[in-house]
């Protein structure tokens, strides 16, 4: 009998069991807890590759440092999208061009005090 492919929900549940400290889900979509970013669940290797990336490891270490200082963090479910939206809105209203986010001093300042990697543009 031919093998049938697992459904998306089955894959999500499987990866949640396999990487409980690294990944969370809303039922259909996988999110990286350290990066607060969507991770593809179509192939296991994509989740493994994301977990091995330098940015993921940096975010994970940064989050560990932040939790040692602040024990009452809010749920990160939509914080990145909220952060990106709020940052975009603030820059537009202040008439600051998006390319200013590429300035290493400004970007470093934001990453230091926000605790997340900032989008380039």
Automatic annotation (TrEMBL):
Q: Which GO terms describe its biological process?
A: regulation of transcription by RNA polymerase II
Q: Which domain of life is it from?
A: Eukaryota
A single GO molecular-function term is: double-stranded DNA binding
Supply the InterPro entries for this chain.
Cggbp1 (IPR033375), Znf_C2H2_sf (IPR036236)
Its cellular-component GO annotations read: nucleus
Protein name listed in UniProt:
CGG triplet repeat-binding protein 1
| Originating species | Rhodnius prolixus (Triatomid bug)
Highest classification ranks of the organism: Eukaryota, Metazoa, Ecdysozoa, Arthropoda, Hexapoda
